[in-house]
């Protein structure tokens, strides 16, 4: 089996942009990114009961934080999105596996930029991330 040097990428025009200039490119996630996603926003606790044979593991889950993490892990390029002063919100850098936002911005920098976006834009980005990374999106019923 050959591992592709460049993952599958797909570009989308953001329909929520009234100017029609915003565009994103989403990368297919690697296994390493799947592992990072699994840890996103979760706090694991082991809870032991009175009986030492019983144990429970609890997770805290925040769906919006998970969507933001997914975007950070898989956005390759973002263009046409600026703040009120005309500054570009998202940067990208070339890597051996193609362009990546995460190569040019720390996660804290990305989160600060992402948190400025309107909620409907974030929802649209999440939809495209899930389109390219179908196993991350809502589970669809199997049809036979």
Plain-language structure description:
This protein is of the alpha+beta class and 144 residues long. Helix content is 30%, strand content 22%. The chain has four helices and seven strands; from the N terminus they run ββαββαβββαα. The strands form three sheets. A three-stranded antiparallel sheet has the order 1-2-5. A two-stranded antiparallel ribbon has the order 3-4. A two-stranded antiparallel ribbon has the order 6-7. A hairpin with a 6-residue loop joins strand 3 (44-48) and strand 4. The longest helix has 14 residues, at 119-132. The protein is globular. The two termini are 30 Å apart. The model has no long low-confidence stretch (mean pLDDT 86).
Sheet bearing the most strands, described? 3 strands, antiparallel
Q: Could you tell me how far the N terminus lies from the C terminus, measured between alpha carbons in angstroms?
A: 30 Å
**Strand line-up across the major sheet:** 1-2-5
Q: For the residues shown, what is the average pLDDT? A: 86
Which regions have little confidence, pLDDT < 50, spanning 5+ residues? none
Q: Could you give the order of the helices and strands?
A: EEHEEHEEEHH
How many DSSP E strands? 7
Continuous helix count: 4
Q: Could you estimate the helical fraction of the residues in percent?
A: 25-40%
Strand content: 15-25%
Secondary-structure-based class equals: alpha+beta
Shape: globular
Nearest-angstrom radius of gyration? 18 Å
In short:
This protein is of the alpha+beta class and 144 residues long. The chain has helices at 31-39, 63-74, 107-114, 119-132, and strands at residues 9-13, 23-27, 44-48, 55-59, 75-79, 93-95, 98-100. The chain has four helices and seven strands; from the N terminus they run E-E-H-E-E-H-E-E-E-H-H.
């Amino acid at each position: 089996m050959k591992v592709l040097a460049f993952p599958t990428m797909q570009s989308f025009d953001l329909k929520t942009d009234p100017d029609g200039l915003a565009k994103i490119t989403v990368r297919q996630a690697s296994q390493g990114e799947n592992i990072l996603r699994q840890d996103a926003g979760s706090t694991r606790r082991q809870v032991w009961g009175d009986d030492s044979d019983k144990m429970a593991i609890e997770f805290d889950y925040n769906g919006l934080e998970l969507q933001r993490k997914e975007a950070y892990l898989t956005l390759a390029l973002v263009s046409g999105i600026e703040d009120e002063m005309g500054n570009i919100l998202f940067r990208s850098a070339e890597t051996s596996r193609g362009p990546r936002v995460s190569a040019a911005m720390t996660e804290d920098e990305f989160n600060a930029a992402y948190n400025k976006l309107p909620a409907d834009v974030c929802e649209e980005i999440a939809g495209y991330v899930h389109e390219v990374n179908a196993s991350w999106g809502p589970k669809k019923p199997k049809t036979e």
